[in-house]
Write a structure and sequence with these properties.
Elements: H1 3-12, E1 24-25, H2 37-47, H3 60-69, E2 76-80, H4 81-93, E3 99-104, H5 109-117, E4 120-125, H6 134-140, E5 145-151, H7 163-172, E6 179-182, H8 197-203, E7 207-212, E8 224-229, H9 231-238, H10 248-259, H11 261-284, E9 296-299, H12 304-310, E10 313-314, E11 316-317, E12 323-326, H13 330-339
Parallel strand pairs: 1-10, 3-4, 3-5, 5-6, 6-7
Antiparallel strand pairs: 2-8, 7-8, 9-12, 11-12
């Protein structure tokens, strides 16, 4: 059982305690803001038809996303959050006994899904700056490798693979080994870190790009994820599309989100400004927080999880005592500052 799921299970058993829920649960890197009013209105209107089935196989949602991205509809697959789409990808591109290569630590879902698919996980430790070691990942690729996963930004450290290093890595990947580029937090990237996905796909037909509406768009509860790539690879993934698997509310929510991009951009700016301010505070306390390009911070070092827990703050824990926390809620950010104010360590520089 992963550390995350074990910790959540323990938390759920505290229901008999005076406080049934923590003061702040920052463990899931959720957006602190509810959906925009226009999005809620669109979803409400769709729910008025909730007695009707959605499309047997999703067509409108892939069309909406494809138009927004500037790709063909047959280059898009949708599913139940990025996790659901990632599971479809593993099941369609691997067979039991294959290997999947990814960095560690990473999103908990990958080792869990690998086990479900009967695929062996080959993990590559992050470097000392919390970045994915691309040279080591390349060395880990073998004849049994059926899929390589990169996260950009990385979960849980928030670090970003530089564009030139990403392109060099993709160019050096053995032919016919698909790469899944997990961009769950791509909307939080600044202009300097953004890479044109269409340019990547033009050069690398074995690339799949995974995204979600759970994070920046704040629709985690609606479970809307998608991947896009070359039509041949996407066609294989579409073979596992679940009938009636995407709700009509999801279609309405995505359309409304796209129409509200300026408001969403303003929200993202609020979150990233709060993130950077909180990181500055942590650095001043000697906590060597890597520069994050997502909506969370990775707080390394023993004692962090314990200090937060004492303040009734739930973080995503790691075996060495480090933690990942969602950012952007002013009250929660303030509580984190107070909880960690006593932790003083020699400052270390991370970029």
């Amino acid at each position: 059982m992963s550390v995350y799921f074990a910790d959540r299970t323990r938390s759920s058993r505290r229901l008999g305690s005076p406080r049934m829920t923590p003061r702040f649960d920052l463990s899931l890197s959720e957006n602190p803001f509810p959906p925009l009013p226009s999005v809620l209105q669109a979803v409400g209107a769709a729910m008025a038809q909730a007695h009707r089935y959605p499309e047997f196989l999703p067509r409108r949602l892939p069309m909406l996303i494809a138009e927004h991205l500037g790709v063909r509809t047959d280059q898009v697959v949708v599913g139940s959050g990025a996790t659901g789409v990632a599971m479809q990808i593993l099941q369609s591109l691997t067979t039991p006994g294959d290997e999947i290569v990814y960095s560690t630590p990473t999103f908990d879902g990958y080792p869990i899904m690998a086990g479900m698919a009967g695929v062996e996980s080959v993990t590559v430790p992050l470097d000392t700056a919390g970045k994915q070691d691309l040279r080591a990942i390349l060395r880990a690729v073998s004849k049994r490798t059926a899929l390589v996963v990169l996260c950009r930004p990385h979960n849980p450290t928030g670090t970003v693979i530089p564009a030139d290093e990403l392109m060099a890595f993709l160019s050096e990947m053995p032919a016919q080994v698909p790469v899944l580029l997990d961009e769950a937090y791509v909307e939080f990237l600044g202009a300097a870190e953004y890479v044109d996905p269409l340019a990547l796909l033009d050069k690398h037909p074995d690339l799949l790009i995974l995204r979600t509406f759970s994070k920046a768009y704040g629709l985690a509860g609606l479970r809307i994820g998608y991947a896009f790539g070359g039509s041949e690879l996407i066609a294989r993934v579409l073979g596992l599309q679940l009938p009636f698997g995407m709700s009509s509310a999801a279609v309405a929510a995505v359309a409304a989100c796209y129409a509200a991009e300026p408001e969403l951009t303003a929200r993202i700016l609020r979150i990233t400004e709060a993130r950077d301010a909180l990181r500055d505070t942590m650095l001043a306390s000697g906590i060597a927080v890597p520069e994050s390009h997502a909506n969370f911070l990775y707080l390394p070092g023993p004692g962090i999880v314990t200090a937060l827990r004492r303040a009734d703050i739930v973080a995503k824990p790691y075996p060495d005592g480090s933690a990942r926390i969602a950012v952007g809620d002013p009250a929660a950010d303030h509580a984190v500052r107070q909880a960690l104010a006593h932790i003083r360590r020699p400052a270390a520089h991370h970029t």
